[in-house]
Amino acid sequence: MIRMPALFAVTILLAVGPLAAGAHEPAQGAASASTIDAAAQPAAQTVDAFHAALKRADTAAALALLADDALIFEEGGAERSKAEYAASHLAADAAFSTAVQSVQSRRSGRASGRLVWIATESRTTGRYRNRDINSVGTETMVLRRDGANWRIVHIHWSSRTIPS
How far apart are CA 70 and CA 143, in angstroms? Predict the structure, then answer.
């Protein structure tokens, strides 16, 4: 179970709240907007490495970036550890990532001591399991510094289909 100081949890909600207010529609414009604190940049690189590992179906590399006590929220369900995620949704997430194209539209991130949050908005298109994919998504990741490395301790994914 992940335990965050109450003040940090409130800070996350206050900081991410304005992002959620505009999350109902895809971001307009071709360029992606990014407002990541300099102190959060190394953690954002870990998030990017996680997605790159999924995209090339390198599940071992993706797992190496997760903390053992990671908590993953996806499709209304929860995996409460890295081992549980590896045994349930990891392979499907890698297969999905290799089949579709995902483009970031916005990203924000802030650091507070050994913890960082990275919030990303994206659009995903392609074909997976014989169905067309056209969706917008939001992702929040919380990372904890582990020595010189950042480990993902929480992922929350949410998406919705864009009507044709």
Answer: 9
